[in-house]
Design brief:
By secondary structure, this protein is an alpha+beta fold. The chain has seven helices and six strands; from the N terminus they run ααααβαβαβαβββ. Helix 1 packs across helix 3.
Length: about 200
């Protein structure tokens, strides 16, 4: 996504505004106020969005420059299969493994947390139970090996429009290096791109 589209989503999330209205207009006075408040809040945060960085070398260089002048709390990479390199690798699995370990090294060196998104294997579409598992990590077991935690998102509504779990997302911790695995359920409010807590018992 471009930085403009990402910023639009941040405004929807923070302001609680329907994403369609952001695109088409027709905001109420209350929504305009919420949008203004959201923009004011976001403008005060140290968030940097780069939509023109595609190699590990560029990622490392940018983090080094930022880290020299301020603490970096979180680095989000969207997504590992889009990373490019001038190096030659024996195969795609070795290439993605190299990126995964490089990202882990960056997090350790700059004392930060990296959140790296990944594609899942298409094999998931051929199973009756489409909840992702570790073997679904696309093209590389090295991604699992390098990660401290592996989290999967699942919405039954995506596959079954008649599910009783409409508006519910499952967040499963399939790997936790220093803790227990498990799953929690959250409300998914798609028009705001937002997760929220569910009422007890749901």
């Amino acid at each position: 996504m471009s930085k403009e589209r990402l910023m639009s989503r941040l405004l929807c999330i923070e302001g609680g505004i329907d994403s369609k209205k952001i695109k088409t207009g027709g905001l109420t006075d209350d929504e305009i106020d919420r949008l203004s408040d959201a923009a004011d809040l976001i403008s005060k945060l140290n968030i940097y969005i780069y939509d023109d960085i595609f190699t590990i070398q560029e990622i490392r260089s940018k983090i080094a420059k930022l880290g020299a002048r301020e603490d970096i709390c979180l680095v989000v990479i969207d997504y590992i299969q889009l990373i490019k390199s001038n190096k030659r690798f024996a195969n795609r699995q070795a290439e993605l493994g190299s990126y995964a370990y490089a990202i882990a090294e960056i997090a350790k060196k700059y004392n930060t947390t990296t959140l790296t998104l990944s594609q899942l294997s298409r094999a998931i579409e051929n199973r009756q139970n489409k909840r992702p598992v570790l073997t679904d990590l696309y093209e590389s077991g090295a991604i699992e090996a390098a990660a401290d935690k592996v989290l999967f998102l699942y919405r039954d509504e995506y596959y079954d429009k008649n599910t009783k779990d409409k508006g519910i997302a499952e967040i499963s911790a399939a790997k936790v290096r220093d803790g227990e695995t498990g799953m929690c359920r959250l409300a998914w409010i798609g028009k705001y791109f937002r997760f929220a807590n569910l009422a007890r018992g749901m």
